[in-house]
Amino acid sequence: MSERVLSEIVAGRKLISCLPGETVRDACRTMAANKVSAMLVIEKGKLIGIFTERDALVKVLVEGRNPDKTAISEVMVHDPQTVRGALPLAYALLLMTEGGFRHAPVVDDEGRVIGMVSARDALGQDMVRLERELERRETLENPRS
After folding, report:
1. Distance between CA atoms of 91 and 140, rounded to whole angstroms?
2. How many angstroms separate the CA atoms of 47 and 6, rounded?
3. Is residue 1 in some structural domain?
4. pTM strictly above 0.90
């Protein structure tokens, strides 16, 4: 796991983002359509925040805000911590664990956003190994004639 580099993990992934003036409902629709639990908030090409399902739950639903009138800028995490793409996944996981968050924007050496990594990315290789092991066991238990 620790050998995987962040830039390789996010390569080829669609960058899901919104503008700070977008409503919470519209942002949530975008997240649902793209099957993601967080999105970057970008203004004039610069990362200014991150909006997550947890923000929608805690800062909108629990607080009784209207998702059709609440702008993302009101409930997003401002100036989120970023991690350089050249670093290993293990570094990002440590950053997320220490910071108490599950998503981190990945930036290149010039500070431009190239993607986002989540704690779930750590499961990737483990899930592949588990699937292979299950297939192996199935083959051993039910050999083909």
Report:
1. 38
2. 18
3. no
4. no
